[in-house]
Structure formats: C-alpha cells, structure tokens
Amino acid sequence: MKVISGSLKGRNILGYQLEGTRPTMDRVKESIFGMIQNHIREAIVLDLFAGTGNLGIEAISNGAQKCYFVDHQKKAIKTIEENCKNFTISEQVEILLMDYQKALSYFRENNITFDIVFLDPPYHEKILLSLLETLVSFHLLKEKALVIVEMEENTIHESTVEGLTLIKSRTYGAKQVNIYQVD
Q1: What are the strands of the beta sheet with 141-152, ordered from one edge?
Q2: CA proximity to 178, closest of 103, 120, 126
Q3: Is residue 104 part of a domain?
Q4: Residue 78 located in a structural domain
Q5: Which backbone phi and psi does 82 adopt, to 5 degrees?
Q6: Helices 74-86 and 54-61: crossing angle, nearest 10°?
Q7: Could you report how far apart the first and last alpha carbons of the chain are, in Å?
Q8: SS3 assignment, position 150
Q9: What are 21-72's pLDDT values in tens digits?
Q10: CATH of the domain at 51
Q11: Does residue 55 belong to any structural domain of this protein?
Q12: Per-residue b or e along 10-44, where b marks 16 or more CB atoms closer than 10 Å to that residue's CB
C-alpha cells in the first residue's frame, strides 16, 4: 500500500495486514482523490474509522492543512502514529484513540468542523445513515463540505440524509463509494 499522489507519492504506508481493517485499495483511492482533487488544498479532514490512516495521509500528501484520525483500536492508532512520524507530518495531524460516537461529540464540544470527511465503518455495524445524520445535526461540516462514504453496494440511497446531496457514486466490485456535499 502506497501513497499514490502528491508530495508523499510512492512512499509505503505501514499496516496493510492490520487485523480488523479493510484498507482502501489503490485503484479505489486513486478514483476517490481524482473526484475530490479540487477540494483538498488547505482542507481540514476527518478520517473516521481510520485504520492505517491511508486516506488521511493521502489527503495531507495532496495539500490538506490538517487531518484528524480516529480509531478505537490501539494497534491502528500505533500504526497511524508510526506512519505520520515516518512521513514527518505529525504537526499536521491529531490522532484520537476513541470510538466514533465519542469522537463526534468531542468535535462538537470543541467546535471543530471539517471540509472533507472519510467514512469507512465496519460494514456489519450498519451505522452509515446514523453517521451522516449526526455529522449534519452536530454541525460538523463546513459549507460545501464533502463526505466520502465507502460501503457495501446499495447500503444507502441518494435521498437519505437531509442537508447532504449525493454528487457522485461509483461501484468497484462489491464496494460502492458515494460522495455527498453539504447543501
């Protein structure tokens, strides 16, 4: 697993075999970043369910100002910390060991808002709709913010969340990527 574009292009990301994670494959990541490239520069990014930090690191590599990484697994957090240290991007990141619900409350309490949010929760938990609604109701999304959702195909539909509009959707085998934008 490598950084595919930007200032860190070609560098290896540790953690491909990290238990309990599903790293975004390079071709899917390349497609996602091709779709959002005009929104990344100087963005404040949230990589929720971060795993290895793959998507947030790619965002930093492409000019994001800051990335918040959240995961509830200690091994994942250690991997993200090591990756950020290796890439000398530690000053641009905040790494939080906590579950997603506590993290979203933390962001709300501290008035932290995002330009881009990556969501790739465990598929079996079936929490995507609730997550999207919480992002909107907690006012965690800046004007014109993007939410990139990786999910099993046909998990949620375009008219599901008030305040967000589906602007792009792509299918890669059994995986679907939807990109929503704040209305």
Answers
A1: 93-97, 66-71, 44-48, 114-119, 141-152, 175-182, 164-172
A2: 120
A3: yes
A4: yes
A5: -65, -45
A6: 20
A7: 34
A8: strand
A9: 666 777 889 999 999 999 999 999 999 999 999 999 999 999 999 999 999 9
A10: 3.40.50.150
A11: yes
A12: eeebebeebeebebbeeebbebbbebbeebbeebb
Cα 69 to the chain's mean position, in Å? 8
In a domain, 2, yes or no: no
Mean pLDDT of 165-174: 90
Q: Can you list the alpha helix ranges (DSSP code H) found in 53-173?
A: 54-61, 74-86, 100-109, 128-137
Work out whether strand 141-152 and strand 175-182 pair parallel, antiparallel, or are unpaired. Answer: antiparallel
CA 124 to chain CA centroid, Å, is: 18
Q: Which two tokens stand for residue 13?
A: 């990301």
Total number of domains constituting the chain? 1
CA angle centred on 36, ends 107 and 72, rounded to 5°: 35
- Residue numbers of the domain that contains 36: 26-182
Residue 125 to residue 113: CA distance in whole angstroms = 25
